[in-house]
Specification:
alpha/beta, six-stranded parallel beta sheet, binds thiamine diphosphate, 42% helix, five-stranded parallel beta sheet, binds magnesium ion
């Protein structure tokens, strides 16, 4: 067993003191969690975790996720002490405008932060995704003599994380997948904001994880460095099961008046209490004091990290010589670039009045994308037969086959969203997740974080309107398009036919950040562009299919399944000598990125009469109708009936559009 010394204990107290002072100076934050879990964090960061502070992006580093994101002062203290690019002055700017130390850890903002956490439970599910990515890349790239990928994923979680449902979903899947390199440290302090966890959280957490198929280990004393060390080593040794280490801690450890109390959770301790606590640690009063020997000891991480990297680079150069083709692929996927000409094999669909459902077209397109892009990986929340998201000829990602690309998430939309975030964050993969559009609500917190972190994840949301028919209002999305469009940084694309779907996939693979593809259950005509002398231009977000001349009488703006209706309506209007432009507007976000000139060429300001047509809430459409236009939509829940009946009843027919147009024009 490793002998821990007084210096180690001093290092633990240094983390506590630094976190305490950081929160105190900001007059805001959470000191209790860092103080309670400093010992386990120290053992992990200073001794057991393979990381390289000078190169936080080194691909085979162990991943560390602070799922209990409110304890950010812990992470910032560890990063600073270990020698990451985070200065003491940065800690003094905790939670201030423009600082590198925001209230909760933010990916892409602070070197060494692997994911954005704060919404409890997300980090833990991200970690499952990271561990899955690790296994996939290991299976794909490692060779008997040469290993490129072999790292652990650690997550530090609190009571709040374990109370959130998403961690149940993710832990259950992790157990099934036997993710042996996933290690979870549980800050078991019996406290959350409102007080004792007995108020609302009494199940046996250890048994729960046992039931998921995890190895479980209990450390009775959260300050016992040797016991924590032994537990983490035992977790590392079990390659068959993920490990759950429950470490009994005291929130606010060392604070005479706040230790073990909820009052240590979310507010600075206060000057008097800090004084008393520092006396308890036998620590100098001076704020932000870091003893020389402590810093020197922590900064050994720099040399150790360099050594780890060096070993890896040696392995890499051996690999490079033996496997040049694999190395090229490796470099490309790690850099996140697509193969040249990857999009040359996307299918084209001939014009066809009967057409196909965009979900089915998407299924065909997916095969071409997956064939060209070997690191595209994904699956659905138990709806693959409906979402058409299986990659043909690929096996299922499982403990027996980590190199397969079909992910079986089970009925777990929320975890699916968080897991694909974790996979994207890990690097090397382009993940997708699929379900019915209506259930996007179940994964919304993860979608929001994907957007916040600008991660390249793709959502395949099918059954996108009342057009799904008989399943009725519980399954029919109404407010969902609007609710996704309002998430900053998320690109929503609702293609009108099979060819627009191919273009939508192309955009999904190339535009920065997350993309939601919104697809129909029902068949849609494949639009005959030659008839309109137009070329689809989904990449610009919107384009005119039928121009209706340079000065049309009105503009019909539609998305998805409603575009064909608008085209039919335009035909009928022409018989009444009314010229209508038909604009397909599959993506507001992409359209808004276009130049003023382009937008004006599609939606000329001079043409005031406009009708937007979309089988969902009308909220938001006024940005395109202007003051004189109207929106045809559905501002109530749907109903259970065949799709054609529903479209008729809710006013989505060419006839209804014609009537609305005639009325609008006052003819
Ligand atoms: C999804 C979500 N809900 C609520 C919160 C607000 N919140 C932050 S910390 C916390 C209590 C967490 O308790 P625990 O994980 O035990 O942390 P400790 O008090 O032990 O530090 C809550 C409710 C949050 N951050 N995320
Ligand atoms: Mg707690």
């Amino acid at each position: 067993m490793v002998q821990y010394t007084e210096l180690d204990q001093k290092c633990v107290n240094a983390i506590r003191a630094l976190a305490m002072d950081t929160v105190e100076k900001a007059k805001s934050g959470h000191p209790g969690m860092p103080m309670g879990s400093a010992a386990m964090a120290y053992v992990l960061w200073a001794r057991l975790m393979r990381h390289s502070p000078q190169n936080p992006d080194w691909p085979d580093r162990d991943r560390f996720v602070l799922s209990a994101g409110h304890g950010s002062a812990l992470l910032y203290s560890l990063l600073h002490l270990s020698g990451y690019e985070l200065k003491l002055d940065d800690l003094k700017q905790f939670r201030q405008w423009g600082s590198k130390t925001p209230g909760h850890p933010e990916y892409g903002h602070t070197p060494g932060v692997e994911t954005t956490t704060g919404p409890l439970g997300q980090g833990l599910a991200n970690a499952v995704g990271m561990a899955m990515a690790e296994r996939f890349l290991a299976a794909k790239f490692n060779k008997p003599e040469h290993e490129l990928v072999n790292h652990y994923t650690y997550a530090l979680v609190g009571d709040g994380c374990l109370m959130e449902g998403v961690t149940h979903e993710a832990a259950s899947l992790a157990g099934t997948l036997k993710l042996g390199k996933l290690i979870r440290l549980y800050d078991d302090n019996h406290i959350s904001i409102e007080g004792s966890t007995d108020l609302a959280f009494t199940e046996d957490r250890v048994k729960r994880f046992e039931a998921y198929g995890w190895q479980t280990i209990v450390v009775e004393d959260g300050n016992d460095l040797a016991a924590i060390d032994a537990a983490i080593c035992a977790a590392q040794a079990d390659q068959e099961r993920p490990s759950f280490i429950a470490v009994r801690t005291e929130i606010g450890y060392g604070s005479p008046n706040k230790q073990g109390k909820a009052s240590a959770h979310g507010e600075p301790l206060g000057a008097d209490e800090i004084k008393l606590t520092k006396q308890f640690y036998a620590w100098p009063e001076e704020p932000f004091h870091i003893p020389e020997d402590v810093l020197t000891h922590f900064r050994q991480a720099l040399a150790k990290g360099k050594e780890c990297e060096k070993q890896w680079l040696e392995a890499f150069s051996g690999y490079e010589k033996a496997y040049p083709a694999e190395t090229e692929l490796w470099s490309r996927v790690i850099a996140g670039t697509l193969p040249v000409d990857w999009d040359q094999t996307l299918p084209e669909f001939p014009a066809d009045p009967k057409g196909t459902a965009t979900r089915s077209a998407s299924g065909d397109i997916l095969q071409a994308v997956a064939a060209a892009v070997p690191n595209l990986i994904g699956g659905s929340a138990d709806l693959a037969p409906s979402t058409k998201t299986l990659i043909k000829g690929e096996g299922d990602f499982s403990a027996a086959n980590y190199g397969a690309r079909n992910l079986r998430f089970g009925v777990r939309e929320h975890a699916m969203g968080s897991i694909i975030n974790g996979m994207a964050l890990h690097g090397g993969l382009i993940p997708y997740g699929a379900t019915f559009l209506v259930f996007a609500d179940y994964m919304r917190p993860a979608i929001r974080l994907a957007a916040l972190m600008r991660q390249k994840v793709i959502y395949v949301f099918t059954h996108d309107s009342i057009g799904l028919g008989e399943d009725g209002p519980t399954h029919q999305p109404i407010e969902h398009l609007a609710s996704l469009r309002i998430i900053p940084g998320l690109t929503v694309i609702r293609p009108a036919d099979a060819n627009e779907t191919a273009a939508a996939w192309k955009a999904a693979m190339t535009v920065p950040g997350p993309v939601a593809l919104i697809l129909t259950r029902q068949n849609l005509p494949t639009i005959d562009h030659s008839r309109y002398h137009s070329a689809g231009d989904v990449s610009r977000g919107g384009y005119a299919i039928e121009r209706g001349g340079d000065q049309p009488d009105l503009i019909l703006i539609a998305t998805g399944s409603e575009v064909s209706l608008a085209l039919d309506a335009a035909d009928q209007l022409l018989k009444q000598k009314i010229t209508a432009r038909v604009v397909s507007l599959p993506s507001w976000e992409l359209f808004e990125q276009q130049s003023v000139e382009y937008k004006e060429s599609i939606l000329p300001a001079a043409v005031k009469p406009r009708i937007t047509i979309e089988a969902g809430v009308t909220m938001g459409w006024s940005r395109y109708t202007g003051e004189c236009g109207i929106s045809l939509g559905i501002n109530q829940f749907g109903a259970s009936a065949p799709a054609e009946v529903l479209f008729e009843k809710f006013g989505f027919t060419a006839k209804a559009i014609v009537e609305a147009a005639v009325k609008l024009l006052g003819k």
